[in-house]
Specification:
The structure holds two protein chains of two kinds. Chain A is an alpha/beta fold. Chain A has 21 helices and 15 strands. Chain B has helices at 22-28, 80-96, 111-119, 154-163, 198-202, 225-235, and strands at residues 4-9, 12-17, 52-55, 62-63, 74-76, 135-136, 142-145, 168-171, 178-181, 208-210. Chain B has two domains: 4-78, Roll (Ubiquitin-like (UB roll)), CATH 3.10.20.740; 84-235, Alpha-Beta Plaits. The chains are: A alpha/beta, B alpha+beta. The A-B interface holds A 287, 304, 308-309, 311, 457-466, 468-470, 472-473, 476, 493, 496-497, 500, 503-506 and B 45-49, 52, 60-63, 66-68, 84-85, 88-89, 92-93, 95-96, 125-127, 129, 150-151, 170, 172-177.
Chain lengths: 551, 238
């Protein structure tokens, strides 16, 4: 208990209405207890709902804490599992409506469609989100948890596991899209007796919360995925590198690790086989650059979290110079489902070389802020308008920012492009970890570029010169433009410097830092020119100092 | 027994043994690749980005000091494009803090100045950032002027790897990054510093200097201990 952050402690209390009879409950109410709804007192709602249901004499009703229900914009959320009824903006003092609805549930009820936000999604990595209690192993097993691991350990060779992952076409969901099967094979074939598996949960892109939601809602899935990965690459130890800003995720992970160890799904002799694997949690201290794999490894080792040039790649020389497999949370979360449903099933979803599904965090000026998982190849228009519900206040769509500070802005004319790793790169953006920030006409694109440059400048570790000094220089130039004091020479300088930084910086942070500038210049050059030549900000965001009048 | 690789740097055929870096082989063959964080005898970290070279078939540039040689690789160490990149990166180092050669103790004995001259950096297009940084003159013999530090971390590495004291390290990040002694206490109060002066000898600029002496009279040009340490390390198989 002592290592747990204070804020996460109440979560551990198990809240279920008194189980008086042994019969299966007639109705379930799922209360979303992920970080977003928790900030709206979701835990109080669980307690109150349980209390009120008991007072109303509902002995055949269960109240369950679940992970993220997805539609964060309407949180705190409560769902009635039998009917699919969703209650949004619930307040702890106002749960009567839910109690009444619970009273009305009959055994013949079927789940009604919950609207396009839910119906258009396809859930793989997030299949248990909002369905299971994240701190209940039985709940996870009931929904097919650990089936994949048991099959892997009892029926498959490590080569067969790697082969299935390769055939599924799964690619790294951290952003770069490196083929997961190939990475696993590289680590498996690398020389060394000791190997490691690391789960990269150092999510730091502005507006991105996919990994947090997965960890908070379905932590066992990560442990199962890591165990499968460890079996496939012959590793015996694993680390989850999670940022300390996610106390709830860390607490649930630690609970899950303890429960899994107790149940024999972690530790020595997993599931009564000779396979050993254990997992430890390592906390990041708030450095964005620690999401870069070599910096992450340095941080896990207890050193200063700065990247080093690659090669050698971590697959060959990683943690303590041993071959190390590093996969993103979402990649690992997809593994158990792929092995349970078969690689052909997964490869059948998606578009071209981008197979399967992708989790996106919808943020910005969008109605349905929240977490969605969609098949690759869905168009941005479907994601933004059908699932996302369009722009707040019905304003015109201007751009969507993907890929975080290394990504780019995609303008309205490309809304009908299917989303895949390749198509986004072609548009000058980047899949990234899945943050999708929607902007309307109230956003100034120069200001957006400046914001991301400020982020990179602030997060630069200071190791290499182009990133340490260059990002600040870019920021100063953008600042000059947004103040209306720049000249065309400054714009030329901005473009020249951006290329040099991209070419010479040491790691992905520096190399990707100029990307928001490239993409905004590509699609919104007129806005730059308006700031420089006409000295106006078309969106009215930037405060431009009035030109001095020559007397 | 290690394998010998033959490859090309700037069109010149060269040979090196497995495990050597492009920079090492270039040095052996009299090909000068500019570098400021690289120093023979201590470990490389690939941070100054001046030694970036093109390798045929690779879309990215590579730091020569960190790139191991391979058979048949075709390295371009000098081109107009690389010169422009190197010049701009050097300019970035100049504008980061306060480098004013005319009033510097290291004037004419400064590797940053030499690099700028060699690359034809005659003026600055970029604005100076010049944050307010301190001078630590609390040590009995030496002083550090952070205004002239380019964060090559030669001092950190030589103190750790050669002297074995690990007095120097780094703190903070980004533009606020500073070298520090003993968890950020003044140098003079450091309990680990042996006052050996190796850090002063390896400093490429005037950031670390001996009190009461101009660098010209100091020992910047005499660093006999580093290559010897390297030989000893190799013999012992360290």
């Amino acid at each position: 208990m002592s290592e747990m952050p204070a804020a996460a402690r109440p979560v551990r209390r198990r809240v279920i209405t008194e189980e008086i009879n042994d019969e299966a409950p007639r109705a379930w109410a799922y209360v979303c207890e992920a970080a977003s709804c928790m900030s709206g007192q979701a835990h109080d709602i669980t307690l109150r709902l349980a209390g009120r249901a008991a007072e109303a004499g509902l002995t055949d009703v269960m109240i369950k804490r679940v992970g993220c229900l997805g539609l964060c914009a309407a949180g705190p959320l409560v769902e009635i599992a039998e009917t699919g009824q969703l209650f949004g903006h619930v307040k702890p003092d106002d749960v009567e409506g839910i109690v009444t609805a619970l009273q009305k549930v009959t055994p013949t009820d079927t789940r009604q469609p919950q609207g396009p936000f839910f119906e258009k999604q396809l859930r793989v990595a997030t299949e248990n989100m909002g369905r299971i209690d994240p701190e209940n192993l039985d709940d996870y097993i009931e929904r097919g948890g650990y089936e994949a691991l048991k099959r892997v350990l009892s029926e498959m060779t490590s080569t067969a596991v790697r082969d299935e992952i390769t055939r599924s076409g799964l690619r790294g969901r951290g952003g770069a899209g490196f083929p997961t099967g190939l990475k696993w094979t590289t680590v498996a074939k690398a020389q060394g007796t000791q190997k490691y598996v690391i789960c990269n949960a150092d999510e730091g892109d502005p507006g991105a919360f996919m990994d947090r939601s997965v960890l908070e809602s379905d932590p066992f899935r990560i442990l199962e995925g890591m165990a499968i990965a460890a079996f496939a690459v012959h590793a015996t130890e694993g680390y989850i590198y999670c940022r300390a800003e996610y106390p709830l995720a860390v607490a649930r992970l630690r609970t899950a690790i303890r429960l899994a160890q107790r149940a024999g799904y972690l530790g020595a002799g997993i599931a009564d086989t000779s396979f050993n694997f254990d997992v430890q949690v390592r906390l990041g201290a708030g450095a964005f650059v620690c999401g870069e794999e070599t910096a992450l490894i340095a941080s896990v080792e207890g050193r200063r979290g700065t990247p080093r040039p690659r090669p050698p790649y971590p697959a060959v020389q990683g943690l303590w110079d041993c071959p190390t497999l590093i996969n993103n949370v979402e990649t690992i979360a997809s593994v158990p489902t792929i092995l349970r449903n078969g690689p052909e099933w997964y490869a059948g979803i998606g578009l071209g070389k981008s197979k399967g599904t992708k989790v996106f965090a919808l943020a910005g000026r969008i109605v349905n802020t929240g977490l969605v998982e969609v098949p690759m190849g869905m168009t941005l228009r479907e994601i933004v308008y059908d699932i996302g519900g369009g722009i707040v206040d019905g304003r015109p769509f201007k751009a969507v920012q993907t890929g975080g500070p290394s990504g780019g802005c995609i303008p309205a004319e490309f809304l009908d492009i299917p989303v895949s790793y390749e198509s986004l790169i072609e548009l000058g953006s980047f899949m990234g970890s899945g943050g999708l920030i929607v902007m309307d006409d109230t956003s100034c694109m120069v200001d957006v570029a400046k914001y991301f440059q400020d982020f990179c400048r602030d997060e630069s570790c200071g190791k290499c010169v182009p990133c340490r000094v260059g990002t600040t220089q870019l920021y100063m130039l953008l600042d000059l433009i947004t103040r209306g004091e720049a000249t065309m020479d400054d714009l030329a300088q901005l473009e020249r410097l951006a290329v040099i930084i991209q070419k010479t910086a040491l790691c992905g942070l520096g190399q990707g830092a100029p990307n928001p500038i490239f993409s905004t210049l590509r699609y919104f050059r007129d806005e730059y020119l308006a700031h420089i030549v006409d000295r106006v900000c078309p969106a009215g965001v930037c405060t431009i100092t009035p030109a001095e009048v020559m007397a | 027994m290690s394998t010998v690789f033959t490859f090309r740097i700037d069109g010149k055929d060269v040979a090196g043994s497995e495990g050597q870096t492009v920079m090492e082989v270039a040095e052996e063959n009299g090909i000068d690749i500019p570098a400021l964080c690289h120093l023979e005898g201590i470990h490389d970290r690939g941070a100054c980005r001046l030694c970036m070279v093109e390798i045929a078939g690779s879309p990215k540039l590579a730091a020569a000091c960190m790139t191991r040689i391979t058979e048949g690789m075709d390295v371009t160490a000098h081109s107009e494009l690389l010169l422009e990149y190197r010049r701009t990166v050097t300019e970035m180092m100049f504008v980061e803090r306060n480098h004013v050669c005319a009033v510097c103790v290291a004037n004419n004995h400064c590797e940053l100045q030499d690099t700028a001259e060699e690359l034809g950096l005659t003026h600055f297009d970029l604005p100076r950032i010049s944050p307010k940084v301190d001078i630590d003159a609390s040590h009995r013999l030496f002083a550090i002027d952070h205004n002239r530090c380019i964060l090559c971390l030669r001092c950190v590495r030589v103190c750790d790897e050669i002297e074995g004291a690990h007095t120097w390290d780094i703190m903070y990040r980004g533009l606020e990054t500073r070298v520090q002694t003993d968890m950020g206490i003044p140098w003079g109060e450091s309990t680990t510093c042996t006052s050996c002066g190796k850090c002063v000898q390896v400093c490429p600029t005037g950031a670390l200097f001996e009190k009461g002496r101009a660098v010209a009279r100091g020992s910047k040009t005499r660093r006999p201990f580093l290559p010897w340490m390297k030989v000893v390390a190799e013999e012992r198989g360290l």
